[in-house]
Structures are given as structure tokens and as C-alpha cells.
Write a structure and sequence with these properties.
9 helices; Nucleotidyltransferase, domain 5; five-stranded mixed β-sheet
Amino acid sequence: MNDAAVQMLAPAPLRVEDCAFTVLDLETTGGKPPEHRVTEIACYRVEKLRIVDRFTTLVNPQRSIPAFVSNLTGITDAMLAGQPRAHEVLEELLAFIGDSVVVAHHSEFDRRFLGHEMKLAGFGPLINDDLCTCKLARRILPWLPSKSLGNLASFFGIEQGRRHRADGDAHATGELLLILLNYLQHRGIDTLEDVLRFQHGEMEYLR
């Protein structure tokens, strides 16, 4: 089979506006698993470059929350005492995510915790494509001193809910994602493959 025939058989690149994204944010009892566990999960579904659905739940981490974390998030042991454990919400969460691209700000943090909870519950690893809004912001706005979610939200005028709570941070990350994708589309990076390559510094703007 010649190269032209192979190109005819290959699927067309998936354009950004045709992608489904799930914007994820987790709150936890601390910095790293397995010592620390998830306390809150929030996701926003993005389709056709619009936020279309939402999933959110508190999670009983089966351990106490350090005082400084409670002071930061406002989540207390008492709030979580009657909440479902992670293994009880994962099936619904993973159904919500489906085969979408999973997006987070500092995605390594969220995926590490989610992967740990999935492993404890007997699920396989999360294989969905990974998109990090912090990595995108570092490439698009290298001159901005801080790429924290709060600073980026202020810079772009994104209305923020309660900071350091999963729902507010996930929604702000979703709005940030839409702004960054729009910026890239206007510079010729308008397929999922190119956006994923761009975040890792594997390509530059096309126009």
C-alpha cells in the first residue's frame, strides 16, 4: 500500500471543537498518596467548547484531615463523616469521564491521587489523554510571574467560586481551558494532537 493510500485510510485529526473534555479538581488531606487521600471531587464536562455538565461529591478519606488543610479548604472531619468512600463514587465518576480528555491545573497532582484511589478500588489505570492548563499557560504566558489558578483567573477576569474547594476550582479551570484553547485555535493549533504536543513543547504556533 502506497503512502497516499495510507493517508486516505488514516482518520482525520480530531479538531478541538469536536473533543470532549472533563475538567477535574480534587481536594485531599495532604500532598501525596498513599499517606493522604481524596476528600472532594468535582468535574465539569466540556463539549463543543461549552461547559455542559457537572459532577461533584465529598469523599470520606478514612483518615483525619490535618488542621492546616481544614483551615485552607474549609473541609472538616465532621463534614466527611457520613460521605461515601472513594470506591463508592469511582464508578459514577469514571462513567462521567468516559473517553474524554482529562484536564486539570497541575494535572500530575490530580491524576496521581485519582490513580491511587482507582488502584485501591481495583480499577485499572486511567488511560485518558492528559491536558494540563498550567503547562499550557506556561507556554502561552511565559512572562506572567505566577501560573497559579488564582492568578490566571484574576488575569483573565474569570469569576472564581470558593478557592481551594473542588467545585470552584474545577469551574475556574474549565473557563481557563476555553480561553487557552481559543488562543491556540487562532494561532493554528486546532487539533487535539497538536494541543497535546504544544503543552509538552513539541511544537510551536503554526501562524
